[in-house]
Amino acid sequence: MFINVIWLIAFVALTGLGIRLFIKVVRSSKMPVRYGSGFFVGLFTVLFGLITVLGFLGMLTAYLPRGNPVVEVTMAGTTEQIERGRQIASWTCAGCHSVDGELPLSGGEDIMADIPMPIGKATPANLTPAGRISTWSDGELQRVIREGTNPDGHLSTVMAANTFRYLSQQDLDSIVAYLRSEPAVETDIEQKNSLTFLAMVMLPVGMLPVKSPPDFDPPPHVESAVTARYGEYVTKVIDCVLCHGDDFSGGSGGIIPAGPSLAGAKLWTSEQFINTMRTGETPYGKMLSDEMPWEEIGKMDDETLKAVLLYLKEAAP
Ligand code: HEC
Ligand code: HEC
User: Fold this and answer.
1) Does pLDDT of 16 surpass 90?
2) Considering the entire predicted model, what is its pTM?
3) Taking the mean position of all CA atoms in its chain, how far away is CA 38?
């Protein structure tokens, strides 16, 4: 935060200098200076001014308290809850909160390292009882999962980009029940999270997919069964549309991988669809890149994958 404040001050100073220089230049009696230099000085001043305003707005988002109040819950921690939580964790959380993509969730490696821009560090935390969550209440834990607000009331960047706000309360309870049941595993990866000034500038223009705290109640529970409704629920939690575009008609790319339209894939048989997610190889013999999280999605059981395909048949173009 300290370094970002310095950056902000530097850009305020540059903008101020630019304005002074601009006034000087446009008052010049020499035409080439007035129009030639005036144009460039003006351009850079506007640019610095824009960076200053965006950086400031981004810092408000990142550093001001946010979030809905913590709702305290009492988890029964039944065997069914732990099992359901373990399943969801294996196809959602494990992709980040584990080095090898497998349970337990003993912490992953900086996921910003692959982004070709200096936007900061985000290390998926150790979520076993050996990590810092052991001192958090169940309600605090649920809030960071659901909306990306830390116990101290601040933005948890990557968690706020997720769609776990669409988890039913029943499923969120199960996830927390599972986390509490994990064995304590130590990790030696430094649990570091920070955003650079560039990230601050990107935040207010929506270039980082951070979401505001949800202003709706947890959605109703959907029984896990081979139904399009359950498939819809799962795709919403996994956020297939983030990459595949609204209505699965193909994503636009940018900082997020551009997934193709699923108009073709919706015609696959259940066997073909399940096989693709388990092996990464499509029915026409193409190996999917790891931009498509098939390994995680492939951890879903057959029924869940069938439900997802049923929903694609309904929703894809
Ligand atoms: C896209 C990767 C990703 C996925 C998927 C993900 N997390 Fe996270 N999680 C992170 C990162 C990175 C952090 C570090 C803080 C931040 O940047 O949000 C984090 C932080 C957390 C924290 C706060 C821990 C701390 O000590 O600060 C909790 C709790 C958490 N995640 C739980 C979960 C659970 C439960 C799931 C699955 C339902 C999950 N996460 C899925 C990336 C992920
Ligand atoms: C992080 C981005 C991302 C997410 C999330 C994502 N996908 Fe993909 N998906 C891709 C990309 C990129 C490809 C293309 C990979 C390639 O061709 O190598 C792809 C390819 C596919 C394909 C193969 C399409 C074809 O015709 O070859 C299917 C099917 C698919 N995704 C389904 C899904 C479903 C269902 C979900 C959600 C449960 C999902 N994807 C979530 C990025 C994503």
Assistant:
1) yes
2) 0.94
3) 42
